[in-house]
């Protein structure tokens, strides 16, 4: 074998042959090999297993009835109220949209104080009210104590929402 401190030392074929024969002589006996023991044990357990008996009949299906589903009663409306209380503090983003337009970057860079941007919404047309980006209602602008507000004039149904997405 080579000495790790002298890696330039040449190894002859005789040294390899000696090392290989030495390794074969030191092969573990079958008694010392835990894998061989485990495989023999498994084979013995497999051959000793009795033949499986006929399968037991499956239990008969029966309706779930009231054991699984409890009937709804008038007093259970409070449970859904408690469920709603869990989500009441979740913040949402409300946006009122006057209208939209498309600009080029050149037009955007030409904007200055006092510039007017033309929107596609018409004067007097209802404003869109969006919650988290989804249209839910329309309304009109009102002024209350020198502050702007919006009065909801129409709640949008799910079918109307789909139609308005196309505009």
UniProtKB/TrEMBL annotation:
Instruction: State if Ribonucleoprotein is listed as a keyword.
Output: no
Where is it chiefly localized?
membrane
**How does this chain sit within the bilayer?**
Peripheral membrane protein
The record's subcellular location field reads: Cell membrane; Bacterial flagellum basal body
Q: Where is the composition biased (Polar residues)?
A: 1-10
**Which keywords describe this protein according to UniProt?**
Bacterial flagellum, Cell membrane, Cell projection, Chemotaxis, Cilium, Flagellar rotation, Flagellum, Membrane
Q: Where is the Flagellar motor switch protein FliN-like C-terminal domain?
A: 86-156
Q: Region Disordered: list its residue ranges.
A: 1-76
Acidic residues: compositionally biased ranges: 23-35
Pfam families associated with the record: FliMN_C
Q: Where is the composition biased (Low complexity)?
A: 36-64
Q: So what does this one do?
A: FliN is one of three proteins (FliG, FliN, FliM) that form the rotor-mounted switch complex (C ring), located at the base of the basal body. This complex interacts with the CheY and CheZ chemotaxis proteins, in addition to contacting components of the motor that determine the direction of flagellar rotation.
Q: Which family does it belong to?
A: Belongs to the FliN/MopA/SpaO family.
Output the PANTHER family linked to this UniProt entry: FLAGELLAR MOTOR SWITCH PROTEIN FLIN, PTHR43484
Q: What is this protein called?
A: Flagellar motor switch protein FliN
List the source organism.
Halomonas pelophila
Q: Give the encoding gene's name.
A: fliN
């Amino acid at each position: 074998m080579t000495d790790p401190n002298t890696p330039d030392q040449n190894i002859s074929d005789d040294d390899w042959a000696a090392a290989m024969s030495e390794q074969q002589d030191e092969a573990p006996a079958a008694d010392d090999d835990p894998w061989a023991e485990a495989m023999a044990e498994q084979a013995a357990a497999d051959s000793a297993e009795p033949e499986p008996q006929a399968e037991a009949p499956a239990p008969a299906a029966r309706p779930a009835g009231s054991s699984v589903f409890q009937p709804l009663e008038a007093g259970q409306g409070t449970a859904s109220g408690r469920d709603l209380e869990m989500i009441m503090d979740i913040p949402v983003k409300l946006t009122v949209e006057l209208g939209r337009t498309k600009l080029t970057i050149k037009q955007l860079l030409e904007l200055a104080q006092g510039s007017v941007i033309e929107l596609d919404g018409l004067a007097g047309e209802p404003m869109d009210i969006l919650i988290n980006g989804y249209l839910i209602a329309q309304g009109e602008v009102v002024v209350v104590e020198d502050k702007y507000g919006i009065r909801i004039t129409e709640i949008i149904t799910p079918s109307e929402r789909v139609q308005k997405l196309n505009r």
